[in-house]
Amino acid sequence: MSQLLKGKTALVTGASRGIGRSIAERLAKEGATVALTYNASKSGAEEAVAAIEQAGGNAFALQADLVDAGSIPALFERLDAELAQRNGNKSFDILVNNAGNSGWGGLSDATPDRWNTMFAVHARAPFFVVQSALGRLSDGGRIINVSSGAGTRPMHVVPIYSMAKASINNLTHSLAMELGPRRITVNAVAPGWIRTDMNAAVRENADMVKAIEADTALGRFGETSDIAAVVAFLASAEGRWVTGQVIEASGGYKL
């Protein structure tokens, strides 16, 4: 099988479970060495690395609490050491900003602390991860931000989450213009309803499942592999002429 990312190195944040883990596994399947970050779930990260290695890929895990922007330089110092040992230098080719936290909570029950935590992970962390990555990211590299359909079609039940994802869309456009001279493409992938543990409660409600599937052109919830496939395309040479785009991967939700 042709490996579109053979010889490449990728960093995927928040990859111990869900969409992030699926992205890490897909990039490794395509031949990339994958560094994945986790916050609390060390066991989940170890399981993800083990699954990648069992499938013949290469991966390693690094702990990072991205709520704390001050932890990001230390994350990259650990990444530098790992890459220098494995590859002989600290450069890498693909950055996927995927880390997130739960977005449930509306206007009435919002607090400043919840607002700050949401924006810290979904908006501030990607900004400063990119800042730290720029001196290490190869010319012709890739930055892929995981956004959400809520970033362009806000949901009133998750206003803070929707605002934060709109921010990452804006950052995507800005970075694409700034990094174009280095041939670094910058895009966002915006999932719709995907089967993850973050929406497990929604999927326990049969009426809500029927309504969501009825509002989706392809008639089903997405799988994490559906998003990973889009990310893999953008990360590869096949996506070389795509930049500054927010690509909704929702199966046609609410067309």
From TrEMBL:
Xref: SUPFAM superfamilies: NAD(P)-binding Rossmann-fold domains
Domain Ketoreductase: from-to ranges: 8-193
Database matches in Pfam families: adh_short_C2 (PF13561)
Keyword annotations: Oxidoreductase
PANTHER family: OXIDOREDUCTASE, SHORT-CHAIN DEHYDROGENASE/REDUCTASE FAMILY (AFU_ORTHOLOGUE AFUA_5G02870), SHORT-CHAIN DEHYDROGENASE_REDUCTASE FAMILY PROTEIN
Stated family: Belongs to the short-chain dehydrogenases/reductases (SDR) family.
Protein name (record): NAD(P)-dependent dehydrogenase (Short-subunit alcohol dehydrogenase family)
Organism: Rhizobium viscosum (Arthrobacter viscosus)
